[in-house]
Amino acid sequence: MATQLWESYEQQYSSLTAEIVNKTGRIPNLSGTEKQSLITNVEKLFEETKELLEQMELEVRELPTASRNKHQTRLKSFQAELTKLEKALRKSRIAFCDEVHVRDELLGSEETNRSQDQRQRLLENTERLERTSKNLDAGYKTCIETEEIGSAILEDLHDQRQTLQRSRDRLRDTNEALGKSSRVLSGMMKRVIQNRILLVALSVTMVVVIGIAIYFATKRHS
């Protein structure tokens, strides 16, 4: 069943390509709207033939393995033949008997080439702009990340500065407290020394008084 369908496709292909060859050969002898109408008709035949080849390509995949390679080879030859017919159509389009039409066709071809060149440059510029935009986005992202890191560092430095300031304040308070303690101790030492001096003086006085008392008591008894 698949083989019969394939044979039907080949018959359709042969019929379409025969019609393409016939009409392509008539194009150089025509001009104006008649020529353009025939070219349009041939282009439609090409589209129909390409769709047929696509259907044949799908059908090859369903064929038994034994005959698949043979039909694939046939399909490739059909595709190559269609490519040659397309080249023949392009040559026929500029093969005018009228030199004016030849000039118009060539000018149109040049315009088409310029248009294609402009389109290519536009595509290249668009791609370049896209790459530039991506680079800018990446640079902006890097700047944002750098700014965030810088903000974090500044915040950390600010916290460290406050910590140092509090340490300085505590050190100053400690120094003041030590100064007060030193003055208190100095006062206490002075009072201790004074008390010792006073105690020594009292002791000496008591010794003198006792000595005098003993002297007078001894003298009285004698």
TrEMBL record:
The keyword Coiled coil applies. Residues 121-188 form the T-SNARE coiled-coil homology domain. Residues 35-177 form a coiled coil. SUPFAM superfamilies: SNARE fusion complex, t-snare proteins. InterPro entries: GOSR2/Membrin/Bos1, SNARE, T_SNARE_dom, v-SNARE_N_sf, Vesicle_trsprt_v-SNARE_N. One of its GO terms (biological process) is intracellular protein transport. This is Vesicle transport through interaction with t-SNAREs homolog 1A. It comes from Capitella teleta.
